[in-house]
Amino acid sequence: MSTTTSPVATVAGVDVPTGHFIGGRRVDSARTFTTISPIDGAPLAEIARAGEEEVDLAVRAAHDAFPAWAALGPAGRAAHLHRLADLIDANVERLAAVECADMAMLLRSLRARVIARGALNYRNYADLAVAYEERDWRSKGTWNRVQRMPAGPAAVITPWNAPFMLSTWKTAPALAAGCTVVLKPAEWSPLSCSLLGELADEAGLPPGVLNVVQGIGEEAGAALVAHPLIRRVSFTGSTDTARHIGRAAADNVVPFTAELGGKNPFLVFADADLDAAAAKAAGQYDDAGQVCLSGTRLLVEESVLEPFLERFHAATDAHVLGDPRDDATTVSPLIHPDHLERVAGFVDRARASGQRVVRGGARTGGLFYAPTLIEPTDNDAEIVQNEVFGPVLTIQTFRDEDEAVALANSTRYGLSAIVYTSSLGRADRVGRAVRSGVAWVNTFLVRDLTAPFGGVGHSGIGREGGDHALDFYSDLKTLQILEGSVR
Ligand code: NAD
Q1: H or E segment at 163?
Q2: Residue 15 Cα, ligand 1 centroid: separation in angstroms?
């Protein structure tokens, strides 16, 4: 481990530091890991690979920085976070180019909205923390007030899809609430978060307030969540990893939120606008289906299956698989050769177990996989019950609302649900009956940042978004004073 000037890798014309960002300095590790570009499989950079020693250094930096950051108060912290947001906006092109090379999300989406959402997260949480009004009331002869106390150093662990935006989604409320942070991005797309450390430094965040540690989940991630000085753990990733992280958080008696996978139903009723429903259903292949909220189980009312499928196939035929830097591309390659194997394995097993592959079901070169539709013969089939996280949808039919809801609620997950109907009554009934953290009616992915966000069942624990996230990163205290006893 050294704390000299860290090397940089030039990625898409942008210099990206390859070390950790700890206590306001670049720190290297003796070991490294390679990040590759999904676009052509070429190695992009050798990234510092943290072990326990670097993680300990980062947590201690966050611990040391905590008292002064907490004492700054919401307005003092907001000034820093607004500067960081401005810098993100000023660096959209660099961040988008690097994330596109590292993760292969469509460049035009990154430029137009995904990176800007990062800036919005910082602004939004900074302002919400300032606007918070402590609740006062009188009861039992006492005067009561609820106070938010910053919780301490927070561990933030993020997945490889939309790594920059999802990291800001968690670090923004943590920092606004007065926590200091150690962020561990995913090893398959570490680069844009390396730039986040650089921007935090440029924005003048005090050393140790935001630290970025790079490394492998089972090593750096595990050491981070198990560190005794960590007071909050916020995780987005797979359900299996959440079990490990939850155990580590429990050992230290630390509150833990988990935003996990989904097998989300996409319900189409006979009274729906079928053109809109089919276009949105085919849109679930965008970003190669590597979106946790995607509606991957199409559930269509039997009487409209044929006209729906006609429209769905036409919309899917219009997809363009290609280089994510090209404006014409709509479906990008999968993130990593191991992930391609995983996705292909799901489809191969489905086919072998008698599920009907209606379209796709094949690799198309490089890390691409064809948009795939499977008609299951069995609702208990693996392809219906488990998250694939790729361009693979299933299609099933239902006869009435009860059957639609029963199918929608028939997996262990419950992240999102999408409902297409023109009936207000049905929108309300089905919206209430589906078990999920969010239910969209006749739309998808539109989110108000102040709304609660999370999953039920194996899709998550706890809620982030708006005041829910600020509460999570705070210890709420009730101050109670005997009336008339103080002046
Ligand atoms: P993953 O669980 O493999 O990894 C997520 C993060 O956890 C990575 O940073 C990884 O390094 C780290 N990690 C792995 N093992 C660890 C351990 N033992 N201790 C500590 N950290 C560890 O998930 P992924 O493959 O990166 O991401 C895809 C998953 O994330 C999908 O299931 C997807 O649905 C989910 N996801 C959910 C949301 C949401 O908001 N609900 C958003 C995006 C992605």
Answers
A1: helix 163-177
A2: 26
Mutate to test the pocket of ligand 1, among 235, 292, 334, 411 (most ligand atoms within 8 A of CB): 292
Domain ranges, ordered by start, for the chain: 8-260+455-478, 264-441
CA–CA gap between residue 230 and residue 183 (Å, rounded): 12
Of 110, 106, 83, give the one whose Cα is nearest residue 95: 110
Each residue's pLDDT tens digit, 215-271: 999 999 999 999 999 999 999 999 999 999 999 999 999 999 999 999 999 999 999
In angstroms, what CA-CA distances link 342 with 120, 191, 249, 367, 391? 34, 23, 29, 12, 12
The DSSP bridge pattern shows strands 474-482 and 210-212 to be unpaired
- pTM of the entire structure? 0.96
Catalytic residue among 99, 198, 292, 387: 292
Tell the CATH topology of 264-441.
Aldehyde Dehydrogenase; Chain A, domain 2 (3.40.309)
Residue 218 designated active-site: no
Which numeric CATH code is attached to 8-260+455-478? 3.40.605.10
Residue 67, CA atoms < 13 Å, CB-side half-sphere: 2
Residue nearest to atom 11 of ligand 1 (CA): 217
**292: annotated active-site residue:** yes
